Amino acid sequence: MRNRFTALLLACSFLIGQAIAADDDGLVYIKFEEALRAPKIKLDLTPDVKLVWGNNKATAELGEVAKPELYSRSDWDRGFRNDRETCLVAFSYALNAILRDAKIRNYDHIIDIQGQYKRVPSPDPDSFVCKPGFRGSDVALSSRFARSREYEAQLKAQRESPEYQAKLRNRPLAPNVLLLPLAPILESEAGKKIIGNVPLHFGEDNVPAHTDTFGPDTFGEDASIRRFGREGACTKAILNALTNIVDEVRGEKYQGAIMIRSFLKDQWAQEPLHYECDVSGSSAEVVLLATLARFPASPAAAK
Length: 303
Prior knowledge:
Low-confidence stretches: 1-24, 299-303
Distance between the termini: 87 Å
Structural class: alpha+beta
Radius of gyration: 24 Å
Order of helices and strands: HEHEEEHEEEEHHEHHEEHHEEEH
Oligomer: single chain
Helix content: 25-40%
Strand content: 25-35%
Keywords: Signal
Mean pLDDT: 85
Number of domains: 2
Number of strands: 14
Signal peptide: 1-21
């Protein structure tokens, strides 16, 4: 009788634990630590990218820190997986997507990693939230990309090396991609009218002193080749992209934008003051990457 009572007590404890793990909406909370040790999922972890979870702080001194981004992924082929297993699979999809973008954008830190549900952070910063469904589960992770000061110095030295410059210049352009200079655009009447008094700084070198940033973000635009011709459509598209950057600066109440560079198909242009334009379809397409910034007040302005 005593053994039966003990078994019943253990069963009740298990059920209470499960009830705590799932709220009234059927949400499941899983510790990041548990997810990283889960044997049935594949994570593309690398020592080159440091992960900083929840409210923890990076041990390295950080330079550029990007704005928060939300990655939502689903496991829609759950098969015979239970709720917890399908939540872990969805978590792996979201985290791997973040890791992939960190590598593409040349960041060595991912910080402020939080679980979210309906854009509300998880009440436990060390856990993510999962919504299991009949066919699968949804997981959303919020995070910020960042570069350590040490890594920024390494990247700068790499960009300045003759080997890197030669490799960049010799990288073949994709078919139907044009490499065009930015200077004629910026010096044109249309370009000056768009930019106005908003400081725009191009390239990753000679970045002016700034107090805080927001970004980077991509600004992609296209224009009709049939209407403007190939290079004319590229000009129209790049002017539209610059308009979007200036509008974003003003809308977010920043002062300017820094480290603006071409980022077509997730690749830098061969020359920092040039942009790549895809003319393979009926429209010319360009993509710029830019970071909004505020600048310290000059002594003259402070008087």
